[in-house]
Amino acid sequence: MIVCKSKREIDLMRKAGKIVADALGMVREIAKKDITTETLNTKLERYVLQKDGIPVFKGYRGYPKSICTSINEEIVHGIPGQRKLCDGDILSVDIGVEYRKYVADAAITILIGDVSEEGKKLVNVCEKSLDRVIKTIHANIKLSEVSRCIQSYVESNGFSVIRDYTGHGIGRKMHEDPQIPNYVSKELLKMDEILLQGITLAIEPMICVGKCDTEVLKNRWTVITKDRKLSAHFEHTIVMTENGADILTV
Ligand code: MF3
Ligand code: CO
Asked: Where is coiled-coil annotated (predicted)?
């Protein structure tokens, strides 16, 4: 069941969202060649705690860290560790924060040094697919319109959308109804729900250069593309209003 949030709840999500956005702002400054993903995890975790936030990923189904760092063919759920960033890498960082019982979640993909033309285009198309859907949607549209907007933009630019993982409702918990696929399917159209004012969603296009098939590494978390081609991920938490989608992770 999809629940609408009250003004008070949305205010708290916006506070959680500001911590998330500022943490991702730090990533843009400190993620450079030779920095380890563990260093990013340590700095962001410290920042979140200092702002009275709780890093919600840590301990979620046993996940060991406060952020996800997914490099190149890694799509999502990369675990921070001693790996150093290299020139030419594309790095996705995903972080969720709880603030006074309310959660916000966002992700960015950034370029480390000199990235291939293909990598740059992939990251750009992924970011634009999220910007575009956020500018397009508003309360009282159907869920499938969110999915269609992302899919059509990504595919018309020659890339694929990942189908095995989706966006999600969010607020009192990190994952709430509905699931938000980044592509349209028969099943989606069958139970297509109307998105009312006050619904809060984490919209997260995950896209790739090659085929959309995925695999999970032996660490049981990190999701990669089967063909080992590049993947990118952007995410914002938004609230649906009559006038449009209002971004909470800014
Ligand atoms: N943004 C991801 C999601 O919405 C983050 C979950 S990672 C986990 O599913 F570590 F918490 F599982
Ligand atoms: Co999410």
From this structure: none
Q: Which atom of ligand 1 is nearest to the CA of 174?
A: 4
Tokens of 109: 């993909």
Task: List Cβ<8 Å contacts ≥24 apart for 177-186.
Answer: 177/1, 177/2, 178/2, 178/143, 180/143, 180/146, 180/147, 180/204, 181/147, 182/147, 182/150, 182/151, 182/154, 182/206, 182/207, 183/147, 183/150, 183/151, 184/144, 184/147, 184/148, 184/151
Q: What is the pLDDT of residue 247?
A: 98
Give the count of alpha carbons within 13 A of 75, CB side only.
Answer: 29
Report the nearest-CA residue for atom 11 of ligand 1: 57
* Domains in the chain: ranges and CATH: 7-247 (3.90.230.10)
Best residue among 66, 105, 130 to mutate for probing ligand 1's pocket (most ligand atoms within 8 Å of CB) is 105
Contact 181, 159 (CB under 8 A): no
Contact in structure between 4 and 201 (CB atoms under 8 Å): no
Determine if ligand 1 sits within 6 Å of the CB of residue 57.
yes
What is the rounded distance in angstroms from the CA atom of residue 122 to the CA atom of residue 103?
Answer: 28
For 215-224, the pLDDT digits (tens) are 999 999 999 9
83 alpha carbon to ligand 2 midpoint, in Å?
24
With a CB cutoff of 8 Å and minimum separation 6, the contacts of 239 are 5, 10, 13, 198, 199, 200, 201, 245, 246, 248
Please report the pLDDT score of residue 14 as a whole number: 98
Structure tokens at 121: 């285009």
